[in-house]
Amino acid sequence: MPIIRFEGQEYDCSEDETLLDSLASHGVMLPSACKAGACQTCLTRALKGKPSAASQQGIRDTLAAQGYFLACLCKPSGDMEIGLASVSPRYSARLVGKELLNESIIRLRLERPASFSYRAGQFVNLTREGDALTRSYSLASIPSDDCLELHVKRVPDGKMSNWLFDEVVVGDELSFFGPSGDCFYISDSGDQPLMLAGAGTGLAPLYGILRDALEQGHRGPIHLFHASLATPGLYLMDELRALATRYEQFHYTPCVLHGDAPEGGVQGNIVDIPAMTLGSLAGYRVFLCGDPPIVNGLRQKSFLAGASMQAIYSDPFVFTPA
């Protein structure tokens, strides 16, 4: 008889009943509604043990990859430890690199703590010691890198970004917790076309997702559209062009809203450019990152161009001024 561990307590579970019903019989009521796998109110995470395949049907693949499942459909075949939400431990890491990528964006490289694991494209939450000021930044690095890489844009009157720009120096210890987010690559369909689009530091997670997909041997076409108001706001163009030269399946398009576009680029609104360039997005897996209005616009246009909502992954950024 499987044993279910939840919040420090252990409960027996009969193999012919769902985890949701079993815990309810012990007086433990998990959030639930339809009890048929439709509403996903009972979404739960397996901290130890493997949920049944049936209990992961219908949920986003990036959630399934992190151990999430539907308790109303799960009939455990072995012991499990579960949680309603993951608790992110706090880490401390030394800053080993700091460089200007353009006039308003810096690259920070942190020593990767030995116990820290993540998926390229997820984000961490930096916390400033003293006042507990916390901001989220996406990871531009990939798990095989020695360091964690963040791209930080200076925000007018931004408490965290100005502190990182003006006061933090190489050698300082920075505190963070995470990772979080389900905008990352899964190598379950290596021939599927991928479309990545974003503006500003929305490139950070896209850069990580791109490199991760290439490292894992993705064979299908990969199109990356990165936008800025004008050419000086773009960055990592040389690195991305080098990748496009090395990998024939990768195509990089820099985009600008105003002025002349750089070589190989396009002038126009990033919200319109991917669908105009590629035509139908049916069958594509789509990754979108950047400011909420841009991400929301890209999501709508991608859907109208044929992409399935289940195949659109996004992490909109929210800037918090002083």
TrEMBL record:
Ranges of residues in domain FAD-binding FR-type: 88-186
Domain 2Fe-2S ferredoxin-type: 1-88
CDD domains (UniProt xref): fer2, FNR_N-term_Iron_sulfur_binding
Highest taxon of the lineage: Bacteria
Cofactor: [2Fe-2S] cluster
A GO MF label: oxidoreductase activity
Family annotation (Pfam families): FAD_binding_6 (PF00970), Fer2 (PF00111), NAD_binding_1 (PF00175)
Alphabetical list of InterPro entries matching this protein: 2Fe-2S_ferredoxin-like_sf, 2Fe-2S_ferredoxin-type, Beta-grasp_dom_sf, Cbr1-like_FAD-bd_dom, FAD-bd_FR_type, Flavoprot_Pyr_Nucl_cyt_Rdtase, FNR_nucleotide-bd, MRET
UniProt protein name: 2Fe-2S iron-sulfur cluster binding domain-containing protein
